Request: fold
Amino acid sequence: MMFLVRCFGFLVLGLLGVQANAANEEPRTKNQEQVAVPFRPEGGKFPPLEESVSYRGELVFVDHANRRGCIRVEGTGQFRRNDPHPFAMLPYGIIRYHGAPADLRDIPLGTVMRVRAYLPPDPKTSSVPVLPINNKDKDANGYRGTGIFPAENHAILLEDDASYCLREGKAWKLKEVDLQLNQGLVIATLEPKQGGDGKAAEQKLTLDTATRFWRGRECLRLADLIADGTWPASGKKSLGGQSVLLGLVWKPCPDGIFVRFHISDVWLDDVATQRAAQSQAEVHKTFIRSRWMPAWVDAVEYGKFGHATVTATLFGGMDPSLYADFQKGSSAMMNGAENTLKHTDASYGPGHMASRGSILDVMKAGGEIPLGSSGIQVRFETDLIIEGIRPGKVVRVRPAAWPVVELPREEHLGSFRHEERFPTPAIFQK
Amino acid sequence: MRLCLSCFSLALCLGASLLAGAAEEPFRPEQGKFPPLDKSVAYRGELVFVDHATRRGSLRVEFKSEFFRSPPTPFAMLPYGMVRYHGAPADLRDIPIGTIMNIRAFLPPDPKNSSVVTTPNHWYPLPLENHAILIEDEPSLCLREGKTWKLKEVDLQNNQGLVLATRDSQDAAAAKEPEEKLTIDSTTRFWRGRESLSLADLVAEGTWPASGKKSLGGQSVLLGLIWKPCPDGIFVRYHISDVWLDDKATQRAIQSQTEVHKSLIRSRWMPAFVDKVEYGKFGRATATVTLFGGMDPSLYADFKKDGYTGAINGAENTLKHAGGSYGPAHMASQGTILEVIKTPGVAPMGSSGIQVRFETDLIIEGIRPGRVVRIRPSNWPKVYIPREEFLGEGAKIEDRFPKPDIFPIYR
Reply:
């Protein structure tokens, strides 16, 4: 009898323990039990964008080799008080700058970026700190308000304001400028480029002598616009709702303003916008050609003596000319990679160590392509199937037309130390 | 007699070893003094990593082997260390990752408090002199040393190719530098007057060939250099990111970067060393400080005896303000500039050669002789700086003396 009582006691304690653990993760009621399970991306699947959380902030710190960094997230309080908030790119996460694909190393520190992000897919191996699930709803105290430390810190999309506007078909309409001593305020609204109901809220943005104006193929200064009479040397002038794209940064601002962004760049016309996008697209194309196209392994059909045929989905968001380089019948190389997109290698780099083979087929998926995917699958045959090339794993693929180069040391795994494969969040200051 | 001889030889040996020891003592900068530039070590490499808030980063240093194997080597800026980009003062945050930078550096002044590693990398012969007094990009070096690149020939295929060029000095007595091969492609920007051009633009107007070789006749330009992995087993070959085709374009680039830095310094305040403090009563004191060098002259011109209220604040060697929870704008010692003194002769690198006497009624521990401070004249804006750029309340030891842990170790 005593034994049964003890067993029952342990059972009750155990159940209480389970409940206590659940309570630590997230508060929930019985009715919410089904819906409160937080969404996390799964390995080998592109997550639905509608499950992501969006926020924006200033890029403060970059660790491009591990595809992570810090953003000062805009919340409800005083922006300057917000500590830099770590984020990591998902392996298929897309970065866009000036309306074109980019790498984190291309984004100047200080740029205001927009983020679409999820909870860490696997909290145990997150390269950035794992936070309580409801963290974005908590008041961070110290006049910082809510929303500045979202637990959703694994990004599928990170883009600057110009990229956001081009993707969403929006433009800034400049209403008025007020200049004093080569600096001042611009009043503008963010509206659909075509149409719009004119009801968008007006925003005040600062600008100064460091602001660049792009017109056609010219790079102009505020002094140039003043000299040609377009803008006033001093005082207010109506800008008549001129449609432009803006590059935004953040600078500390006086007068106790909670948050006011600063205009780093103004693209005054479509030619200037296209040239900026083309320039960044060229940078990224040469980058991907040397680092190879990232992809997911969908399936492996094993043959004999190390032979196999690998079906992989190329990640999305690249320039179309890069995908066009994957041609049926051409030779190619494939190498295992980590979630940070670092190549697995040893001391000689991927150009030496990757599995060689040929592209048997290139298939384009029909229907709606999820963000993160290109919708393009390649079937690749190799005689050196390795552990890094298994279903669900990330790989990088090089078609024959791309150069064989040796990568710098920090961009591939060396002697396979644990922290190289799974970088810890220790790099981020508290 | 024998004992005397033995003592004599022992003293001789000791003396000799002491002399040898003194000769081998490596030079380290001292706190409160600007070190002589000729004691620094010069090298160059690719900027790979930046921690701008603590004024440090990593450089892939060029050495006599395959460049891609060179692991990122950490460096820290000395408090008076200068960063220059596009021929103008800059902050580390302004320099794009990948830029080739030229560095002049010393051994850590105090190895115990170094924010970067002080032990040698056993695999690679990389410099231990990792505390920089000067870090500058290629155009800045050329402008400072009176050098230009002379373009000899371009050879293009499929929108990419090679440029043959030499870096020439205006000083006729300077040694001739060897011809270099540099890569170029569709990402290269060409600056002409106020135009920003691409390779396709130059090809379209017939200045450069669409394909094949063309002599460029020794055209004088400035080049921005970066590094990209290159094929064919080349040990090191740099890539041209930017070409400034004329003086107007160069001047516009300088002006642009100058404006960026002026606005940064006005919000973060001018860094300086405290030379001396004359103490008064009830917390009153007059601090004499030497402003650090390398800034735009208009910033120094803002320091004048005007009777208006400015501010002075303690700072760390990383130039981080001491701040508490409200930041320097709230916590700094208020006061007025009594005098601005220009020291005679040529100022050493790191110094502006300008001293300021500043009177305050709130002399604090951070404002002592030899310490680093930041000072704001009355006409600079009073803004609150972001959290990572000042020490918080009850500053943690790692805030004041950042550890090298942030840098991965590559073997």
User: Anything to note?
Assistant: Chain B has three domains: 37-143, 147-248, 269-400. The mean pLDDT of chain B is 91.
